[in-house]
Amino acid sequence: MAQPAAWDHPEPLALDTAPVPEYGTGSLADLLPTLAAGMAVPDMTATIQELTPADRNCVFLIDGLGWEQLKAHPDEAPFMTSLLAGSRGGTGRPLTAGYPATTATSLASVGTGRPPGAHGLPGYTVRNPATGELMNQLRWQPWTKPGAWQPYPTVFQLAHQAGVHAAQVSSPTFQNTPLTKVALSGGTFHGRLSGEERVDLAAEQLAAGDRSLVYTYYAEVDGAGHRFGVDSDTWRGQLMYVDRLVQRLAEQLPSRSALYVTADHGMIDIPFDAQHRIDFDEDWELRAGVALLGGEGRARHVYAVPGAAGDVLTCWREVLGEQFWVASRDEAIAAGWFGPPDQFDERVYDRLGDVIAAARDDVLLIASEREPKESAMVGNHGSMTPAEQLVPLLEVRS
Length: 398
Prior knowledge:
By secondary structure, the protein is of the alpha/beta class. It has 17 helices and 18 strands.
């Protein structure tokens, strides 16, 4: 007689069901090379086939504004909503951020035009193989030499060398950070505090060259989502404000310009209960054999003590496998999570966890003692679900 269904041991999520980002055709890493190719920058390839070249290109990156969140709030963002049908060159489709869908990884993908497995910033925190310590790649702590960690030139640097007027307009606090150096440097940096000052100057910088590549950035949508959630009044207020900034910039575009509005990731709110927030620091099974826990709550890098990687993989699949895609390092690379396998840079290999866990369900693997601030966030991101992975590519042309 068959056992009751409740006694059946559920199978872990099959890795081939994970929605791998559209590397090479429609990811954030493809955006700047496509724009630069349209301005005749050498060695750049236009891989987002839907985009039409322009002499002057501006990328406005809104931190944390995912495709699904934008579509869900038309009243708060009437101008950007009016552009949704024309996203990604008139196809009405989004881009994919890349895995993990987190700021440091995505900004490096944007700026270098390379997937995470090549540029080498494959998570919020990852192990530095030279020291054995976790490195926070957003805050660059502990410090390590930026050029050694990410040695490839940025698209801005290559464009500047080719005679394109390249500029970044952002908060002054980002001017000299290692992340800016490895991901977004090249041409000139212009620090401005207010959003209005940034978009006004971005328009001026676009007009400053016959061929121009300009980047500007707004962070507070992401901050409001983390603190209060993506459907809070505070988040809605930030969306309303940045919608007006986008319209302000669009109305100032000089001739022969294209403005592209995108984001580094989306976001999802996770309820504060034990069912949705699994605490690594209170779970002896998940801790067994683990030397370091990296990544973030929805995109974990798990570093095993020597000889324990196989056991940790088995355990994590048994405990989390119904809610997370749980892969070994080699499986994740082969599946293309970090980019096409043939583009994977071996210097990045030991930065990845022995085990990599990406959330499918509305769950979070927190670490309440090791990561108290991160564990208290309402809005979260990192994995490959549409809410986190899909980002707009809104377009305005003059």
